Amino acid sequence: MKKIALLPLAFASLLGMAAGARAEVIGDVDTAFKLIGPDHKIVVEAYDDPKVNGVTCYVSRAKTGGVSGALGLAEDKAEASIACRQVGAISFKEPLGKREEVYSERLSIMFKRLRVVRMVDGKRNALVYLTYSDLLIDGSPKNAITAVPVDRGTVIPVK
Q1: DSSP β-ladder status, 40-48 and 52-63
Q2: Could you tell me if 59 and 85 are in contact, meaning their C-beta atoms sit under 8 angstroms apart?
Q3: Is 51 helix (H, G, I), strand (E, B) or coil?
Q4: CA distance readout (Å), 89 to 54, 57, 65, 97, 121
């Protein structure tokens, strides 16, 4: 019986690990007043790259308010902006893939996700971060990109 009770907890922890980095809300601004439920807003979140010490990415995105937003039933817009910056000495916890998803967050109750992908530009010794949203069938071409240069004396370890 205890094993069955632990299955949901194990599943939740696996989902948490699959999501990559954890977002920290830095702040928000209201964009539209809603009489019932929270206002529509733009949220700014920060997350530290889980495999790269010294790099933090800031993502701003729209968050739908109102009753549907409060209940988690609203579909947030597919638009986001990203800025990743060196905030300390850059070091690597493990070798990086040439292209890896480092963050993912649900934007709707069904299948729409905001994703942040890290790519390694070995020729220029830089980390490139791309944000976009996708759907099960058809994603959005709206995207944003940023890059963090790594000192030439620091080799980016790639798998």
Answers
A1: antiparallel
A2: no
A3: coil
A4: 5, 15, 38, 20, 19
CB atoms inside a 10 Å sphere around CB 21: 18
Which tokens hold the place of 2? 């205890």
Token output for 34: 């809603």
102: its two tokens: 């480092």
Measured distance CA(49)–CA(41) in Å, rounded: 25
**Where do we find the tokens 């889980």?**
50
The residue type found at 44 is: V
Contacts of 140 (CB under 8 A, 6+ apart): 78, 79, 132, 133, 134
Express each pLDDT in 14-32 by its tens digit.
Answer: 333 344 567 899 999 988 7
Q: How far apart (Å, rounded) are the C-alpha atoms in residues 132 and 113? A: 8
pTM: 0.75
How many CA atoms does the CB half-sphere of 81 hold within 13 Å? 6
Which amino acid would we find at residue 73? L
Task: Judge contact between 13 and 37, C-beta under 8 A.
Answer: no
Per residue in 119-128, pLDDT (tens digit) is 999 999 999 9
